[in-house]
Amino acid sequence: MTNIVLQLSTEEMAKVQSYYASDRVERNAPGVIFAAKLADTAITVYKSGKVMFQGAGAARESARFGTGNPAAKSVSSAKGDALPENFANLSVIGSDETGTGDYFGPVTVAAVYVPADKIELVRELGVKDSKQLIDDYMRKIAPDLMKVCMHSVLTLRNDKYNTLQAKGYSQGKIKAMMHNQALKHVLHKLSPERPDYILIDQFAERGIYYNHIKNEKEIVRENVLFSTKAENLHVAVATASILARYAFLKEMDRLAGTIGFPLQKGASGKVDEMAARILAKHGEAVLKSITKWHFANTEKAKTLLHKKNRD
Ligand code: MG
Fold this sequence. Notes:
This protein is an alpha+beta fold.
């Protein structure tokens, strides 16, 4: 899928509107003066003179009116789709995941809807770029955010993760399925209202993402945009990353309760040592039930333990 943005004059904007008059659709998003939908392309005309062509037919349709303005394509150093003008102020469902690089604990995904009229409130509750937020702060603000924002948070526990992984599911596929699921849940809760856009914090190219979920019964496609660093582009993604982290921390707390001490995050040498200790004390089945078993840490922990037993 492609996104092409043209910057057009008033006269040219009028041409676009008359050309697609019979395909017009209602879109009450701020800043939007006209929207049309073809089988393979969505066309959106903004007050600013930007016209966005989105979908498989974007190149064909936009070529009728001009060539893309590269200056209008990106608003930050983030890689991904061109975002419409004023994107940060639109009503958006954002999604993000966490835990994928941690040997211990689950993969969690959250999708959160922040409508235009709640953006200020959510900022007021303390949402910033979550990479700058520390865990304790996220634990504090997440419950309020969940009260205020429509959301879906999914926690894939280690046993289920390991089963899927053993069946040949890549981590990319697991993540894509979870994002799709969480987005679907929020869309269902929201229905018949619709967001202006859905923004996924990009972990895979659009084509790869959709290939991962091609066999799903319901695939969320409409108005879906992808970008890296998406938590800087809309507060909905920043909120999603906080809720995903909160769910991750809660599951880590639960696992700490079963093992008797807090588990090391990440996948470093410290993790190997902790895993070796757990292996020695509780055995393989228990270690497997709290880890992403296919990580290299498993073999490293076994090696550490054998060494220790030899010494
Ligand atoms: Mg992310």
